[in-house]
User: Which sequence fits this backbone?
């Protein structure tokens, strides 16, 4: 009786391991993607139910669908083998980002596409009832554009060294045929034209709406340039140009008495903060507490809006509440007036007093007084 032994290790692999072996690309990157998805699931699972009326199962179903949809998009894009599609959309993305920022900075109202002034800043566009967060679009579009530009620069340099026609940077090469623009043939000026210039332009257009977003996107772009092999000396020069541009914007803000880029006033106020060390210590504790609250409630599905109604009659308060609720509802939110128990629950969660708000008194400090005893004393004194 003879026995056969399978010496082919590939045939013995089944299930998950066989699927992993068939995966193309860098497996480390795929593992990182899956880990980030798992972290997002844990974050949603632990924080969302605190401020949501939905059950954990319903919330996890929605988040799981979104996560799987995102993974499907990644796999779909990865399996597109025609790299020319990504090159086209990388260049198109820069153009679209520039136009969106131009509409936002000029506060244009085009009917179907309108710049929105929210919380003292121009940050979003309204497109057929939907909000477009332009700065988020800029983050993705500029990373894709820089990836294309860095790769195209290497192709152009190799073609120039080989003495053949460059397949990229057609505009710069065409402009360099003019006598007064011949300097565009040099590699440094091509990097300025296609890499440094667009990066500085986009960051400069973002700054009026959000200084922090401009700095954050600048850091992302600088990191992309370092990964792409751009000389550190030139990155330092681009960073210096960014600092000079920021100083010019700050000078324009001061010269206009705060009318130009009013958001900079917040930045200056932070720089001119409290001088008393004890007060500074208290402020740091407050900021730390708020940061912790934001981390715990970053994925909340329920929020509370408070509107002050000073010197108004009851009917005016009622009309204003209806008007505010209508505006919030038009943005896609479910809005209703909170009852006393709901307000107590929200405050209890915010101040970490309890989970359901049952320990919060109607009046702060009333739990330390015996109301009945005080009434009896008043009656005896009366």
Assistant:
């Amino acid at each position: 009786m003879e026995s056969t032994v399978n010496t082919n290790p590939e045939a013995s692999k089944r299930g998950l391991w066989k699927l992993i072996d068939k995966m193309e690309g860098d497996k480390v990157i795929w593992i990182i993607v899956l880990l980030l998805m798992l972290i997002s699931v844990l974050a949603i699972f632990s924080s969302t139910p605190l401020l949501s009326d939905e059950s954990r199962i319903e919330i996890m179903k929605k988040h799981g669908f979104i996560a799987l949809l995102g993974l499907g998009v990644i796999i779909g894009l990865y399996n597109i083998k025609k790299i020319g599609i990504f090159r086209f959309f990388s260049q198109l993305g820069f153009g679209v980002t520039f136009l969106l920022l131009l509409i936002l900075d000029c506060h244009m109202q085009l009917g179907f596409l309108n710049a929105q002034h929210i919380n003292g800043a121009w940050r979003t566009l309204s497109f057929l009832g939907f909000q477009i967060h332009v700065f988020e679009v800029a983050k993705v579009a500029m990373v894709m554009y820089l990836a294309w530009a860095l790769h195209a620069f290497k192709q152009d340099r190799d073609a120039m060294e080989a003495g053949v026609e460059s397949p990229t940077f057609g505009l710069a090469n065409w402009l360099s045929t003019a006598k007064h623009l011949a300097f565009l043939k040099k590699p440094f000026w091509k990097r300025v034209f296609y890499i440094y210039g667009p990066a500085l332009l986009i960051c400069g257009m973002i700054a009026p709406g959000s200084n922090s977003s401009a700095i954050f996107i600048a850091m992302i772009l600088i990191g992309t340039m370092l990964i792409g092999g751009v000389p550190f000396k030139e990155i330092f020069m681009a960073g210096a140009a960014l600092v000079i541009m920021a100083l010019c914007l700050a000078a324009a803000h001061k010269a206009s008495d705060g009318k130009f880029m009013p958001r900079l006033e917040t930045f200056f106020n932070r720089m001119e903060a409290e001088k008393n060390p004890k007060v500074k210590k208290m402020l740091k504790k407050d900021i730390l507490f708020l940061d912790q609250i934001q981390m715990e409630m970053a994925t909340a599905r329920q929020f509370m809006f408070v509107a002050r109604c000073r010197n108004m009659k009851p009917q005016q308060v009622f009309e204003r509440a209806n008007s505010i609720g209508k505006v919030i509802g038009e943005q896609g939110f479910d809005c209703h007036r909170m009852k006393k128990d709901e307000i107590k629950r929200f405050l209890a969660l915010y101040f970490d007093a309890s989970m359901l708000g049952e320990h919060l008194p109607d009046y702060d400090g009333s739990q330390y007084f015996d109301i009945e005893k005080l009434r009896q004393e008043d009656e005896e004194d009366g």
Summary: The first strand starts at residue 113 and ends at 118. The two ends are 113 Å apart (CA to CA). The chain has a mean pLDDT of 75.
